[in-house]
Amino acid sequence: MHPNLSAASLRGEKAGIIVLYNMEAVKTLTEFIIERQADFKYAKGELTRLLSDISIAAKIVNREVNKAGLVDILGEADSVNIQGEAVQKLDVYANKQFIAALTAGNEVCALVSEEDEDIIHISNNGNDVGKYVVAFDPLDGSSNIDSNVSTGTIFAIYRRVSLSGPAELDDFLQPGTELVAAGYIIYGSSSMLVYTTGRGVNGFTLDPSIGEFCLSHPDMKIPKSGKIYSINQGYFVHFPKGIKQYIKYCQEEDEATNRPYSLRYIGSMVADFHRNMIKGGIFIYPTTAFSPTGKLRLLYECNPLAFIAEEAGGKASNGSKRILEVQPECIHQRVPILIGSEDMVTTAEEFIAQYSEVPTS
């Protein structure tokens, strides 16, 4: 229980009405993680602390995102990251906060961030002692901040495969099937942390009045099908033919399949994915003439969300192959992705196969 709460209820006042919250019915993220330690494959206490560290960084970043218009952290930081993208000031801030949180303990030996070109080693007296490595996107959709649109953080946790000494490249170049845990935080009208350890997906909403993530979406499931497709349709002329034909299929009228579908595209993968998790739908970022291997990063965007999608009953594919089975070749590798409701992803794959435009990796 939160240290400032002396009883099993929290009394608050809103518009002159006194409301009593039954705190016995509220389960915090920390309590939930401790209860579910048996689900963890490896060092239970270390992974518990690691997930707790991530939640602390998320609270700090959430605070800054919510007051971004009031302080000098909006806009670009006059630099570009390893992806060749303009770095936003909040990108830099979020990156520093997550690095600081993940280096506070001895659980992690190395990090990979979207914002940094190389592996970030975490040493204790010259030794990388942690049993885990973490890959993360500190602030997905950050270009939307100036427009007050939802953003997010994505993280992927692997157990290191090297035995001792500094972490190695192979510690990160593991397929998504080897993930120990993964999750995302969405900073929106309410802020949520959603994660899985391979035993289902659970979502926690931040209660700012007590500063805790509280269980709000237990055992999340993606509907088997939906009525939403999410894609940057402005690039339509540059899409492969199979994707073009699938989009036309989404727009056709067919009562039996509840078509036409609705186009919903926020431009923040976390926000689009989260909405489709709740309502059912498909998110697509295919190859294009400008990005022949795809644009989204395998290690810290596609793999963790694919792990969550599958654990929630959904599907994630590069067009022909399960995302989690793609073998990473470099830490910032890009891939095309189709992710969301199982039936919708399968149908999109069929269009791609029909027009013989299948990714080779």
Task: Describe, in plain words, how this protein is organized in 3D.
With 361 residues, the chain is of the alpha+beta class. The chain has two domains: 9-217, Fructose-1,6-Bisphosphatase, subunit A, domain 1 (Fructose-1,6-Bisphosphatase, Chain A, domain 1, 2-Layer Sandwich); 228-354, D-Maltodextrin-Binding Protein, domain 2. The protein contains eight helices and 19 strands. It has helices spanning 29-35, 44-66, 89-102, 169-172, 241-251, 269-279, 298-311, 342-354; strands at 9-14, 17-22, 76-80, 86-88, 108-113, 120-121, 132-140, 151-159, 179-187, 191-196, 201-207, 212-217, 228-230, 262-263, 282-285, 296-297, 315-317, 334-335, 337-340. It has an eight-stranded mixed beta sheet, sandwiched between helices. Strands 14-13-15-19-17 form a five-stranded mixed beta sheet, with helices on both faces. The chain has a two-stranded antiparallel sheet with strand order 1-2. Strand 10 (191-196) and strand 11 (201-207) form a beta hairpin. Helix 1 packs antiparallel against helix 2, helix 2 (44-66) packs antiparallel against helix 3 (89-102) and helix 5 packs across helix 8 (342-354). The relative contact order is 0.12. Mean pLDDT is 86; it is low at 1-20.
